[in-house]
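Practice problem 4.
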């Protein structure tokens, strides 16, 4: 009997039945399961065998040995899990043997092991196994996606049943049918996954140069025309010309990476793994990686073929069709810095040295890697730790000569063997405690190079002479007054080399001055070359560097002579500062000059273009208010503003020209908050470049059309918000298209805007949008509470890891610690990025309030001085800012006293109850009185307002402000103390201003207090218990206990962090101080 007869529905349903009769039966058979199985089997048969990262055909696969390519893998993980990534396509390029496949394998394994894995499909090409048929590439991807995602599987099955020969179509047609149609048109993955990662390794091994280029072109075109698609692509290949031509159509062309003759052992081992894998697949004899060093040869040039014609993609918005973000290219470095004498050690005895890393998931992930580090010798003054790992039996011996040098000096003279690079013990990424560092005493420290600005200044001065200006001003901000700026607006950094957030350059015909505040003076000094004189303005803790001037304007006035001209770009100075300076210039017979082009832009070669990233809508579940409501409230405020009638006018009836008919919003944070639209144009702040006009009967948003997709266009249209191009603002102002009347603008508005309006067309007023957004609604406050819990979890996990590492005798740099805490934050739900640059400082760097470590010049975190970490994450529901100072050794008496005073000031602010109408500046004295009594102080403000998923510095209601605090304000409490060249201490927490119940209500007053958001324990090791009052001790214990209660449920799977947290909560106050330290005359 035939197979078909065996599958008859009658036979199948009644097989084995007898002695019965059916008359005219109606039989309905369901073939769904069988049809699905057949369709999937067809995909299996046509897929490339062994393509997956975990296939048996590739077992054992090449992996990165301990420590190799950590920076690249970490960068890829950051990109893949960043919801605000700038591009959906990354290309890893490098010559043969640099370890591309090992990187892709290791990255795939780590991603697959993650609880929040976004891995959709992997394809590892191989010539040896003939895993290189281009006609099967997209079928292979489709099969893997079908296995994981039921809606997609249903779609594929239906398509194959309708047209079984679809798998034999051209690559272009396959891509449209299997990838583009279901993802972009059908949107089958919406609601399932925000992101799915597709990894293609060894594209250059695919058969045919033209086919390789076609695959690359199809993928790149999709990511360019549909940047919001859930699919993201990671592709690795050699930098073959025809592939490079596709991936570098936009943006800078990367330099191909080649191995040097003195390549490090990590790269040798990676190279050897790759060659061993190739030999194994080709059944060739093995080559021992411990004996043979491979030096790859440069591949022969490949003829550049014509890219395939563009596909007729499904319809997209016009804005999307013209958006071409630069796809990112990752170059694989061919060298890793290692300390002298370091080597790849044996992993023998690993189990004995292995530390418990908390969650079972983390243990599974880290078993993929090998830990062969060795601890440094235990010193007499080290403190035991409850969380420290078991010490190794294989410690480096201490010689008698070293012991004879004395206890306090032993640390600096002992040789510290640099452990090989290895994998994390507590995170799923490969940033490690030995990450690209050089040990002092073993190798010469690498210093960050300053930028040589001699040529740039010469070119600028030539333009100044042509423009007939004697001085040229270059501020640090952009046209919107933002704290952090896009790469295209980093003019101050280009001309000076200074990377700080606050500074102003004053360039003369023969001198150059960089004016900055005390917080940034040391950073400016380190980052600029000899062409610049650093001028410190404002009140500082180092009188020797103080210029005696309160700001850059006051300093500039000391340089001017009669009749001189000051050149500047009016867009980059506020109306307030320009007005003050202009008033002073009149008395000196000097004046402004506005060259037709920004002079820095004219000398800036290869200047980055302005960001063209899409904006997106922030959901009501996070904002608590829709944009229409906010616009309505702002129009009510505009109507309520009194007309601008001069006092000398007798007729008090306002004319139409004197009425306020609209407002112009210049601040990017204010625009984002008003419209509930966010972007990724600015580092750390989810905002976008735009201007916003709000009139009584219309609203106009000025932004590049390339930033708007169909969803945002429809969103704005429903609110009757008109869209115009970003540069259309200027003709709008010049033509006064709003008609008669004045526009309300704040003092911080760009001077170019007020000049364009003239004083007849604007009225200065408080920034009403900022006043509204600083008062958080219930939804925003609840989001902040949840965000600070998650951020607290990450901070505690980081401190537990750092404590464990240092007490296990491992060396950690400030830079690595900054990356580590970011990685812990990345594992938290709703993480978007950092809220600001992480301040990670040990020893003398802790005395620099805004110190940011650099990779090659960062200090090791030592056990003799406090370690300060000031950092925070941006989450979808809140912006976080937390500072903690910890000690890993025996604090000196002066460190303990300074820390205790900082804590007392912190507690005084946190526990204060005050009447309504009290300003932050009135409370500031509470934090400083413990210092003032001895003639001491700290240089920075005690606290500042912050946003809800916006800027970490928001509003003017800080502790140095006269603005009254009101319920709904959020503010930081950051007390500190610093000894230049020694160490610094700071404790920072975030607070909500709220009403409190008091026993009495004198005269019916409303009383306010603070609710603490930050949920990170305060270390008691440095506290001098005898200095604390009973109330202060209770506050400290209560705070740490609350941290335990709030964080414990979220740390149940991380035993290391939970144990550390329990220890900190239960620890008594204080520890016996050591015998050494700097003497401070407290009396």
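Answer key:
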């Amino acid at each position: 009997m035939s197979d078909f007869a065996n599958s008859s529905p009658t036979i199948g349903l009644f097989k084995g039945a007898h002695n019965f009769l059916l008359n005219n039966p109606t039989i309905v058979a369901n073939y769904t399961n069988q049809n699905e199985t057949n369709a999937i089997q067809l995909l299996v048969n046509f897929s490339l065998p062994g393509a997956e990262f975990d296939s048996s055909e590739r077992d054992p696969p090449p992996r990165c040995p301990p420590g190799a390519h950590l920076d690249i893998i970490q960068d890829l993980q950051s990109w893949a899990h960043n919801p605000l990534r700038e591009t959906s396509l990354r290309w890893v390029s490098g010559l043969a043997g640099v370890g591309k496949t090992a990187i892709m394998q290791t990255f795939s394994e780590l991603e697959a092991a993650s609880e929040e894995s976004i891995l959709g499909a992997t394809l590892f090409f191989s010539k040896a196994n003939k895993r290189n048929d281009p006609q099967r590439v997209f079928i292979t991807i489709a099969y893997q996606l079908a296995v994981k995602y039921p809606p997609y599987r249903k779609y594929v099955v239906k398509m194959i049943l309708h047209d079984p020969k679809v798998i034999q179509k051209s690559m272009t047609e396959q891509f449209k049918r299997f990838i583009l149609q279901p993802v972009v048109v059908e949107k089958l993955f919406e609601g399932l996954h925000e992101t799915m990662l597709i990894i293609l390794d060894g594209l250059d091994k695919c058969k045919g140069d033209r086919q390789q280029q076609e695959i690359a072109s199809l993928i790149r075109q999709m990511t360019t025309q549909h940047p919001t698609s859930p699919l993201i692509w990671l592709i690795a290949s050699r930098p073959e010309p025809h592939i490079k031509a596709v991936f570098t159509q936009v943006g800078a062309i990367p330099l191909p990476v080649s191995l040097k003759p003195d390549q490090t052992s990590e790269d040798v081992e990676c190279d050897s793994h790759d060659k061993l894998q190739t030999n194994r697949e080709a059944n060739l004899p093995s080559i021992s990686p411990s004996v043979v060093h491979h030096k790859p040869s440069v591949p022969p040039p490949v003829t550049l073929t014509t890219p395939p014609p563009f596909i007729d993609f499904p319809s997209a918005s016009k804005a999307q069709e013209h958006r071409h973000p630069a796809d990112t290219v990752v170059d694989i470095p061919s060298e890793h810095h290692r300390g002298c004498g370091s080597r790849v050690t044996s992993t023998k005895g690993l189990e004995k040295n292995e530390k418990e890393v908390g969650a079972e998931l983390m243990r599974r992930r880290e078993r993929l890697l090998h830990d062969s580090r060795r601890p440094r010798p235990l010193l007499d003054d080290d403190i035991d730790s409850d969380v420290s790992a078991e010490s190794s039996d294989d410690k480096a011996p201490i010689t008698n000569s070293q012991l004879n040098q004395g206890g306090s000096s032993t640390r600096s003279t002992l040789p510290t063997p640099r452990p090989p690079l290895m994998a994390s013990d507590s995170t799923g990424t490969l940033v490690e405690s030995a990450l690209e560092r050089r040990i002092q005493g073993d190798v010469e420290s690498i210093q960050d190079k300053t930028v040589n600005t001699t040529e740039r200044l010469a070119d600028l001065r030539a333009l100044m002479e042509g423009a007939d200006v004697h001085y040229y001003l270059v501020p640090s901000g952009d046209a919107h007054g933002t704290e952090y700026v896009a790469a295209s607006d980093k003019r101050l950094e280009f001309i000076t080399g200074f990377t700080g957030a606050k500074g102003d350059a004053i360039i003369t015909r023969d001198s150059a001055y960089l004016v900055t505040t005390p917080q940034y003076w040391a950073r400016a000094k380190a980052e600029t070359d000899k062409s610049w004189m650093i001028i410190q303005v404002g009140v500082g803790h180092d009188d020797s560097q103080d210029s005696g001037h309160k700001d850059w304007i006051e300093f500039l006035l000391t340089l001017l002579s009669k009749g001189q001209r000051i050149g500047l770009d009016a867009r980059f100075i506020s109306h307030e500062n320009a007005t003050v300076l202009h008033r002073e210039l009149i008395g000196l017979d000097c004046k402004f000059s506005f060259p037709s082009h920004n002079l820095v832009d004219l000398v800036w070669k290869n200047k980055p273009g302005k960001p063209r990233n899409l904006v997106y809508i922030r959901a009501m579940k996070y904002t608590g208010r829709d944009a229409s409501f906010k616009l309505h409230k702002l129009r009510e405020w505009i109507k309520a503003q009194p007309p601008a009638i001069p006092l000398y006018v007798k007729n008090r009836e306002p004319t139409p020209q004197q009425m306020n008919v609209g407002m112009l919003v210049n601040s990017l944070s204010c625009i984002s908050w008003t419209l509930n639209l966010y972007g990724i144009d600015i580092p750390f702040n989810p905002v976008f470049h735009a201007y916003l006009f709000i009139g009584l009967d219309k609203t106009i948003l000025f932004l590049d059309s390339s930033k708007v997709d169909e969803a945002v266009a429809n969103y704005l249209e429903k609110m009757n918000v008109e869209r115009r191009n970003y540069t259309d603002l200027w003709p709008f102002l010049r033509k006064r298209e709003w008609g008669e009347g004045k526009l309300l603008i704040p003092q911080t508005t760009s001077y170019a805007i007020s000049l364009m309006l003239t004083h007849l067309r604007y009225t200065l007023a408080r920034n009403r949008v900022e006043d509204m957004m600083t008062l958080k609604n219930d939804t925003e406050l609840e989001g902040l509470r949840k965000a600070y819990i998650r951020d607290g979890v990450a901070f505690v996990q980081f401190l537990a890891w750092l404590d464990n590492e240092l007490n296990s005798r491992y060396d950690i740099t400030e830079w690595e610690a900054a990356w580590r805490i970011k990685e812990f934050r990345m594992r938290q739900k709703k993480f978007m990025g950092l809220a600001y640059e992480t301040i990670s400082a040990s020893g003398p760097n802790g005395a620099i309030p805004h110190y940011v470590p650099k990779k090659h010049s960062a200090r090791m975190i030592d056990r003799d001085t406090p370690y300060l970490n000031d950092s925070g994450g941006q989450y979808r529901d809140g912006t976080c800012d937390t500072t903690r100072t910890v000690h890993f050794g025996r604090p000196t008496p002066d460190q303990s006293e300074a820390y205790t005073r900082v804590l007392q000031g912190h507690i005084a602010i946190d526990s204060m109850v005050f009447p309504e109408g009290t300003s932050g500046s009135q409370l500031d004295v509470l934090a400083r009185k413990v210092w003032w009594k001895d003639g001491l102080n700290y240089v920075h403000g005690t606290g500042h307002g912050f946003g809800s998923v916006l800027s970490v510095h928001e509003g003017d209601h800080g502790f140095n402000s006269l603005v009254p605090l009101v319920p709904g304000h959020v503010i930081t409490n950051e007390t500190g103390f610093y000894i230049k060249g020694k160490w610094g201490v700071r404790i920072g927490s975030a607070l909500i201003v709220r009403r409190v119940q008091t026993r009495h209500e004198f005269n019916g007053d409303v009383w306010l207090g603070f609710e603490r958001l930050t949920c990170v324990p305060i270390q008691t090791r440095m506290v001098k218990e005898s200095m604390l009052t009973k109330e202060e001790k209770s506050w400290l214990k209560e705070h740490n206990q609350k941290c335990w209660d709030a964080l414990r449920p979220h740390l149940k799977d991380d035993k290391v962090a939970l144990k550390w947290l329990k220890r900190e909560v239960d620890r008594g106050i204080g520890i016996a101080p050591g015998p050494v330290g700097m003497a401070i005359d407290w009396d």
